[in-house]
Structure to design on (546 residues):
């Protein structure tokens, strides 16, 4: 899904300055699917993801005109969501600090919309490979491939250095292609 | 080009970081290496689309979210409790005794405390119950001691103990309410109605159990709930999101069968009314009235409660007229007039009494 930056800015403006409820609703609906998918991949519960998204959107409303100061709203939302998700896990683990390295994403069972629409074998193989990636690596790949963020944005969202992001992305590609190769290269 | 380089460039491409030169290199490489082209195609394949199901989920999520916003708005508009500013003030309202309060919003809020409390045994000890009841034509919402939010529709009564200290969190409902239950797996949340008990395993759902209605309905929006019958507690039915359970109360007085028939139960999916994906069952939460292929008699039942009027049918055949629609009107006359456009009938108003005829 390509997000039109001007459209999002306009919505931001209307919400911040004239408290436009219809703009707010449009924003909520626009980001819902991808934010829930992202949050769920960390907290593993769609219910909790919904709560996090709701809390985040409430904050957005309450910012009032400060909302205008956010340059990249989508990136901001993802970052806030990542932090809330990790906080949630930390609380659930009785405050033993949880970071991106210690989350367990493998049991995330609900298929993403992409996965639901996989018509061919190769896409399924790719999906398998993605799900098998280690947590940070997987998040980096997903943010870049599925959410179409660039390296810098991804680094901002996950609090990583640019180099680390590049490294993870390359590693992800290697693993995915490695998984896919036998099916494509041999079937000439 | 080495495989490593190919992968690196492909990564950059996906991240939008590839320069024109790098894109050219990629194109050149894949053009002369069909198997790598295949991999390239599979990995750059964009299949991001939202299904109608996803749109529906988003709409529902927003409906729930805007209710929370309303509650937040209202509580920050009223007197701030010095002890804890973040506590919604409705929590205080619910425990006030014998007072009548009116909110500044369009929802008329009336909470009547009973002159004497009802006593129920809970965990073997008498427990005091708080009561929230609404008159016809009004709705309210309340926050329970555990943080659960309940929206109570017209002509309904919700009772709960002042503190949820027992092993279970229990409430008694007559009428209609929408629950957004605070998760607490150690203390099951149980709702008692006339014929069925509902144990909450999830979070948001609607229960409709008016004494004068022939059926009881419960509709699940999020989470899971487990329903059992008061006379057969072992038999349970579990509802999943977007499922609705309708239970008929026992047969009318005219039937004289020696053995009581089992309550008829029907499990079905919630039906969205239109493109906006508004569910009939929870339309009342957003101040709308919605019905799909519903008999006029039933529609009038809802209208009576909503507008606090009495509607009589001079011609009984009118009761079987069926309508489908959504209304945001606050004006009963307008609603009736619109319905008349699809199937003509007449209505006369005398004070709070409305008569429908041909």
């Amino acid at each position: 899904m390509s997000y039109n930056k001007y459209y999002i800015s306009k919505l931001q403006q209307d919400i911040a300055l004239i408290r436009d409820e219809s703009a707010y609703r449009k924003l909520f609906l626009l980001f819902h699917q991808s934010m829930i998918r992202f949050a769920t991949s960390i907290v593993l519960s769609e219910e909790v993801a919904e709560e996090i998204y709701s809390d985040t959107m409430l904050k957005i409303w309450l910012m009032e005109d400060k909302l205008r100061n956010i340059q990249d709203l989508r990136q901001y939302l993802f970052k806030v969501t990542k932090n809330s998700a990790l906080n949630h896990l930390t609380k659930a683990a009785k405050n033993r600090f949880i970071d991106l390295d210690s989350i367990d994403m493998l049991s995330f069972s609900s298929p993403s919309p992409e996965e639901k629409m996989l018509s061919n074998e190769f896409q399924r193989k790719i999906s398998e490979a993605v799900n098998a990636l280690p947590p940070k690596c997987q998040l980096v790949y997903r943010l870049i491939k599925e959410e179409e963020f660039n390296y810098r944005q991804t680094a901002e969202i996950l609090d990583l250095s640019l180099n680390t992001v590049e490294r993870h992305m390359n590693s992800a590609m290697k693993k995915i292609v490695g998984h896919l190769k036998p099916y494509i290269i041999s079937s000439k | 080009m080495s495989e490593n380089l190919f992968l690196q460039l492909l990564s950059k491409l996906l991240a939008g970081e590839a320069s024109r030169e790098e894109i050219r290199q990629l194109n050149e490489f894949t053009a002369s290496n069909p198997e790598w082209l295949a991999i390239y195609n599979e990995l750059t394949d964009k299949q991001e689309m939202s299904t109608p199901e996803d749109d529906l989920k988003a709409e529902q999520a927003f409906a729930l979210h805007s209710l929370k916003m309303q509650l937040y708005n209202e509580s920050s508009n009223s007197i701030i409790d010095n002890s804890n500013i973040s506590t919604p003030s409705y929590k205080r309202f619910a425990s006030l005794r014998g007072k009548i309060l009116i909110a500044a919003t369009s929802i008329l809020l009336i909470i009547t405390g009973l002159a004497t409390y009802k006593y129920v045994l809970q965990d073997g000890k008498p427990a005091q119950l708080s009561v929230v009841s609404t008159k016809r034509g009004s709705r309210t919402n309340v926050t329970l001691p555990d943080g659960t939010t309940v929206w109570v529709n017209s002509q309904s009564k919700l009772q709960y103990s002042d503190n949820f200290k027992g092993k279970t969190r229990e409430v008694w409902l007559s009428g209609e309410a929408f629950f957004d239950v605070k998760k607490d797996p150690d203390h099951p949340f149980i709702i008692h109605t006339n014929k069925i008990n509902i144990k909450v395993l999830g979070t948001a759902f609607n229960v409709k159990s008016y004494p004068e209605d022939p059926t009881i309905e419960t509709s699940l929006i999020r989470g899971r709930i487990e329903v059992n019958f008061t006379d057969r507690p072992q038999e349970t039915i579990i509802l999943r999101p977007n499922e609705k359970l309708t239970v008929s109360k026992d047969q009318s007085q005219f039937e004289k069968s020696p053995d009581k028939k089992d309550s008829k139960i029907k499990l079905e999916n919630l039906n969205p009314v239109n493109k906006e994906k508004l569910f009939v069952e929870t339309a009342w939460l957003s101040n709308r009235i919605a019905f799909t292929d519903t008999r006029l008699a039933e529609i009038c039942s809802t209208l009576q409660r909503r507008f606090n009027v009495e509607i009589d049918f001079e011609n009984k055949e009118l009761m079987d007229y069926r309508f489908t629609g959504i209304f945001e009107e606050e004006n009963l006359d307008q609603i009736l007039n619109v319905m008349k456009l699809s199937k003509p009938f007449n209505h006369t108003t005398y004070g709070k009494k409305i008569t429908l005829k041909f």
Remarks:
- The radius of gyration of chain B is 27 Å.
- Chain B has three domains: 3-44, 52-269, 288-357.
- The mean pLDDT of chain B is 70.
- Residues 52-269 of chain B form a domain with the Jelly Rolls fold (CATH 2.60.120.1440).
